[in-house]
Amino acid sequence: MNDEIDMILGGAQGAGLETTVQILSSAFASSGLGILADREYYSNIKGRHSYVHAKVSSTEIPRSLESSIDILGCMDAETVFTHFEDVREEGYIIYDSSVDDKTQDEIKSLEDPLRERLEDRFDELGVEGTVSSILDHLEEEKDVEAVELDFPSILKELQEKYEMSSSQASRYVSSILIGAVSGLMDLEKNSIEKGIEKKFEGKEKIAEQNMFLVGDVTDMVKEEHGSPLKMEKLGLDEDQLLMVNGNEITGMGKMTAGLGFQSYYPITPAADESLFIEKHAGEENVLVVQTEDELAAVTSCIGAALTGTRSATATSGPGFDLMTEGLGWAGINEVPMVITYYQRGGPSTGLPTRGSQDDLMTALQSSHGSSPRIVLASGDHHEAFRDAVKAFNLAEKYQTPVIHLLDKFLANMVRTVPLPEIESLTIERGELWEGGEDYRRFEDGPISERAFLGEEVMWYTGSEHTESGNVIEDPEKRLKMKEKRMNKLDLADKEMDEDERAIYFGPEDPEHLLLGWGSVKEVAIDSIESLEEKIGYLHLRTFSPFPEEKVLSYLKKADKVVAVEHSYSARVSEVVSLKTGFEIENEVVKYTGRPIYRDELVRSMKDVLSGRVSREVLKHGP
After folding, report:
1. How many angstroms separate the Cα of 260 from the Cα of each of 286, 300, 430, 599?
2. CA angle 499, 500, 502 (to 5 degrees)
3. What CA–CA distance (Å, rounded) separates 150 from 298?
4. What is the chain's alpha carbon radius of gyration, rounded to the nearest angstrom?
């Protein structure tokens, strides 16, 4: 029996890989197994290589991925060429035997840099460069077993049984992978069927055809290879679990918080959150508006917030850049709005479907002039849900914009999570106007009583203004109003629990400290547990207001502090230096747009802690 299985399933974009993962993930959950799966894809609608890298566990819900894998499932030859070196000893490659003689030169979608690296690598290994030669090499050097399946023959049988065209049958290639994985892992038939029925709900004929094909391939693989990767059940209660990605659970958090208005302009990787909310909008009485651009998205969000509706917009880097003027307007007018900011690889269009954490300073400092904002950062699905609720509470309590930072990795990461404990959540609407005479919207200290549009006479303007909202340029009034707004952060700093703004994981008295934020959280925790050194991880959750005292107390106690981040310059080090004066001299960074893997982080940490290097750049992932 196996405790953990790591796998990569790959194929051409648009060929059904998403379906494969959805069905298998559902089957794993139904079988009482924990699952974590990262989806990597090109900025291309159809044709380019995409893959899902997953870990399945019978002992826990996985937190991070390994660079090496037990199963490589290939829907095409390109997947073999791209990932063959990721397969560990005694692993398995599922592939189409009809592409045995295919060479990389025949695959036009391969990018030239990868093609050149492959040519050099084949020369080093003494491999001819065909699919079959790669498989022979892996069998000889790593005892890797090839699961040969004749895809055309399998699809031909489906075609004849259900009297469909060859083009129709070709759409079922993804089910061949499902059947092969099911056979190797001996997944229960009813769990696979449940996953297929869920995916093709209301499409009984398609579900039946997929079940036939999956069952046929499962039997084939079991007969030829047995079920060498069978796993014990973790014993998770399926009814107490969700199978979700980061976009979905953030949307769930927003709706739980009472979201009434969500605006968006389609952009990767943020759009899926709005589409999810839109799908369920009728159940929760939410208005979702796709605007003509991000300027309209942010301004419509502001308008809705002024009516008293809990309002948000979701975007990524290029879209956020366009929102900054609106963000400043919201700041000077003390508008309680939420911007959910999914980071991706930049600058400019950059790597639009890849991950990054390079926008921390953008979130903190964008928009001309200074205005208050609260900046939260989520590190996993649990935090994403709770932060989505917290963002609205903080926005309304302190009457200021809140930026909720996530990234592509978290957005697209699918995992099993326990059902959120919504009973412990509270809704805080802040200071509301209860009626009376002579209403002035910006009266008194940092927090004024807030009336909604239509309840009282009020003025909003992008210019500096009096307590009533009338435009002024008087220097003393300017001082008063500017300080009123900026004092919101001082108040929030006093009232927000530092222990929730920075969370420590690890031994009580660590010799060294790993510092990070966002989606590096779980790979960082797994990595410190794998190291022999006494090392802890400090996870930053709130960057404005910054938990200066708590962070500094941990930094000063450590012999070495190492920042880890998906960026070129470890932005977290820059923020810590600005806020505390403490200079972090060591960093592990990755800016290829691919996730950080546990084993590569462990290796790099050993190098940094030994003093061999002070900066390590991670590179694994095609």
Report:
1. 5, 12, 17, 43
2. 70
3. 52
4. 26
User: Long-range contacts of range 280-284, CB-CB < 8 Å, 24 or more positions apart?
Assistant: 280/251, 280/255, 284/255, 284/259
Q: Are 408 and 231 in contact (CB under 8 A)?
A: no
State both tokens at 503.
């969370």
Which tokens go with 134? 């790669």
State pLDDT tens for residues 523-578: 999 999 999 889 999 999 999 999 999 999 999 999 999 999 999 999 999 999 99
* Domain residue extents for the chain: 4-225, 243-424, 431-496, 499-617
pTM: 0.96
Beta strands 311-315; 261-264: pairing state: parallel
Residue with token string 């932005």: 571
499-617 CATH, one of 3.40.50.920, 3.40.50.1820, 3.30.450.40, 3.40.50.970: 3.40.50.920
CATH class of 4-225: alpha beta
**4-225 shares its CATH topology with 499-617:** no
By DSSP bridging, strand 414-418 and strand 241-244 are antiparallel
CATH class of the domain at 243-424 = alpha beta
> Interior CA angle at 495 toward 490 and 499, to 5°?
110
